[in-house]
Design brief:
The structure holds two protein chains of two kinds. Chain A is α/β, with parallel strands linked by helices. Chain A is built from 19 helices and eleven strands. A four-stranded mixed beta sheet of chain B has the order 2-1-3-4, covered by helices on one side. By secondary structure, chain B is α+β, with helices and mostly antiparallel strands. Helix content of chain B is 44%, strand content 11%. Chain B folds into two domains: 11-70, Arc Repressor Mutant, subunit A, CATH 1.10.10; 82-159, 3-Layer(aba) Sandwich (Glutaredoxin), CATH 3.40.30.10. In chain B, helix 1 (11-23) packs antiparallel against helix 2, helix 2 (31-42) packs antiparallel against helix 3 and helix 3 packs across helix 4. Classes of the chains: A alpha/beta, B alpha+beta. At the A-B interface, strand 3, strand 5, strand 11 and helix 15 of A face helix 2 and helix 5 of B. The complex binds flavin mononucleotide, iron/sulfur cluster and FE2/S2 (inorganic) cluster. Iron/sulfur cluster (SF4) is lined by residues 168, 186, 340-344, 347-348, 385-387, 389-390 of chain A.
């Protein structure tokens, strides 16, 4: 497969404009400005690109939700919050190929009619922030940003906005609240951001990786992108793999690659000759797979869904036979309990309950009925809250307890 | 109350706030960037500093506190000269973060949340920092250090003064 997102990862100084221009950087803009925004949206629809932030929503379709005569302004928000445990692919893009992201931002902004884009980058990403800031300055100095870009009559400003340590701010409505200077509380949808978002204006929130795929799609055409991947999961995807593999890191795959092939051929297999026990395929919020389930699943939206899990952010966490699944779940539950924003009762109370039960099981004081209680509390958290954070906590809990029940029982008895 | 407050930013800092106020359609949106300016200069955000920001942005102080306390990276107390933050989330845990934390606690003679007596180091734990491929990892003053071992930690601590 042709490398799309990672093609410059090994190029010296690819974060600098000169190196990027030497690699056909910003080439898509000439084609972009010679077309109507509606044609660009059509092209992205045809490419089959789906959001890489976790939900997998078709990008072109989302752009189409911006009202027809929105007035001005319309905003683009770039989600560089990357807080989902196991996920570190956006950081790789920001550090190694920031101009690809900027080119993608120009394309998306042109398509939706935005003249201002806000990049929301998590506060801990100071180094990527500095690299992106330098790249944005270079882009301004060479008229890829600012007024009348390349003399084609389109204006665009990019502002980088730093977060300050809150996982929930990765959720799009929370991200918007945070840019507005408020606590990062998610809001009820509808209204969706495309209708009423940042400062009450129509807004599109897109993930870094989603935007970074756009230059290829515009330069090479939707068909070239759609030729990669499967019927419904088109294109390439970054997988960040961590845990017990020989070569953890960020890899680009054609969607539809067998999970086991990925682990063995990309990530170097399980380290120290140990055996695979479990895989969380798409960031900590998606249901875990047993080694048996992992054997015949493909890395694409549909195949993972058929196994009851999700591609999510592509943050793959690999666990070998030595892992204590009870302790692993306790670590996850502590995280979600810490990060719940507390607005909704089922999430606030449920996360507290789950933590209390996991604490006692893990410390050897579990009670009869605790496992059913974990499942029961999780069920009561799902589908009842302002944002899907509560589901993101409940799903791993249910899957761990159901699939590794014996280990939990042994800890209680 | 704005006249007799004792916190002020540097001249550059004040100018930057001025620029921020022009960037957003609402002054409130300049709040997080303004708080970052304060923390970058002072290392933490005191009550005086929060009220200074409230005055600059023409916001009620209560709203500034409301936002400020939501975000874990804004320090509400003075920390040691170097802030060591060890990731203990799932991927780092799988690669031995518990042991890394134990080593740091013993080496510095403090628990998490504490500062060494000489005021040099504060030790904390944090959630996933988006660097799970280099687990176990930690952040010191916004700088990332991965693939930690005892030797590597010794070296890092020695390099900080
Ligand atoms: C709790 C929670 C955390 C999220 N964190 C992130 C994140 O860190 N980065 C991201 O791009 N999307 C995150 N999302 C998804 C966003 O809400 C949104 O769907 C995404 O940014 C849309 O961009 P895309 O369509 O390009 O994927 C999160 C969602 C939830 C519910
Ligand atoms: S589900 Fe949880 S995180 Fe989401 S808004 Fe409700 S309380 Fe906050
Ligand atoms: S779990 Fe430690 S950096 Fe992600």
């Amino acid at each position: 497969m042709e490398q799309i997102l990672t093609q410059n990862f090994k190029v010296l100084n690819a974060c600098r404009l000169n190196a990027y221009l030497g690699r056909e950087g910003y080439k898509s803009l000439h084609k972009l400005f010679s077309q109507q925004s509606s044609q660009i949206i059509e092209e992205v629809k045809k490419s089959g690109l789906r959001g890489r932030g976790g939900a997998g929503f078709p990008t072109g379709m989302k752009w189409g939700f911006i009202p027809k005569d929105p007035g001005s302004p319309v905003y683009l928000c770039v989600n560089a919050d990357e807080g989902e445990p196991g996920t570190f692919k956006d950081r790789a893009l920001l550090e190694k190929d920031p101009h690809r992201l900027i080119e993608g931002i120009i394309i998306a902004a042109y398509a939706i009619g935005a003249r201002e884009a806000f990049v929301y980058i998590r506060g801990e990403f100071y180094r990527p922030y500095k690299i992106l800031e330098a790249a944005v300055s270079e882009a301004y100095a060479n008229n890829f940003l600012g007024k009348n870009i390349l003399g084609r009559g389109f204006d665009l400003d990019i502002y980088i906005h730093r977060g300050a340590g809150a996982y929930i701010c990765g959720e799009e409505t929370s991200l918007i609240s945070s840019i507005e200077g408020k606590r990062g509380y998610p809001k009820i949808k509808p209204p969706f951001p495309a209708v009423k978002g940042l400062f009450g204006r129509p807004t599109i929130v897109n993930n870094v990786e989603t935007l970074a795929a756009l230059p290829f799609i515009i330069s090479n055409g939707a068909a070239a992108y759609a030729a990669i991947g499967t019927e419904k999961s088109k294109g390439s995807k970054l997988i960040s793999v961590s845990g017990h593999v020989a070569r953890p890191g960020v890899y680009e795959i054609p969607l539809g690659l067998p999970l086991i092939t990925f682990i063995n051929e990309y990530a170097g297999g399980i380290r120290n000759g140990k055996r695979l026990k479990a895989v969380i395929p798409g960031g900590s919020s998606v249901p875990v797979l047993t080694s048996l389930e992992a054997k015949d699943v493909l890395l694409d939206y549909e195949s993972l869904a058929s196994k009851g899990t999700m591609l999510g952010s592509g943050g793959m966490i690999v666990m070998d036979e030595s892992v204590d699944m009870v302790k692993a779940l306790k670590v996850l539950v502590d995280f979600y309990h810490h990060e719940s924003c507390g607005q909704c009762t089922p999430c606030r109370e449920g996360s507290g309950w789950l933590k209390k039960i996991m604490d006692r099981i893990e410390s050897g004081h579990g009670r009869d009925g605790d496992l059913d209680l974990l499942i029961n509390v999780s069920d009561n958290m799902m589908g009842k809250t302002i944002c899907v954070f509560a589901d993101a906590m409940a799903m791993p809990v249910k899957s761990f307890v159901t699939k590794f029940r014996k280990e939990f029982e042994d800890k209680i008895n | 109350m704005t006249d007799d407050m004792n916190f002020t930013l540097s001249k550059e800092g004040e100018e930057k706030i001025g620029t921020l106020l022009k960037r957003y359609p609402s002054t409130r949106a300049a709040l997080l960037p303004a708080l970052w300016l304060v923390q970058d200069e002072a290392g933490w955000i005191s009550d005086e500093a929060a009220e200074y920001v409230a005055a600059k942005l023409d916001l009620p102080a209560a709203e500034v506190y409301g936002t400020l306390t939501f975000y874990t990276m804004f320090n509400r107390r003075k920390l040691g000269r170097h802030h060591i933050e060890v990731c203990t989330n799932i991927c780092c845990w799988l690669k031995g973060s518990e042991e890394i934390l134990t080593y740091l606690k013993a080496k510095l003679g403090i628990n998490e949340g504490e500062t060494t007596e000489d005021g040099k180091f504060t030790l904390s734990t944090v959630e996933c920092l988006g660097a799970c491929g280099e687990a176990p990892m930690m952040m010191v003053d916004l700088e990332y250090y991965g693939d930690l071992t005892h030797d590597k930690i010794d070296e890092i601590l020695k390099s900080l003064n």
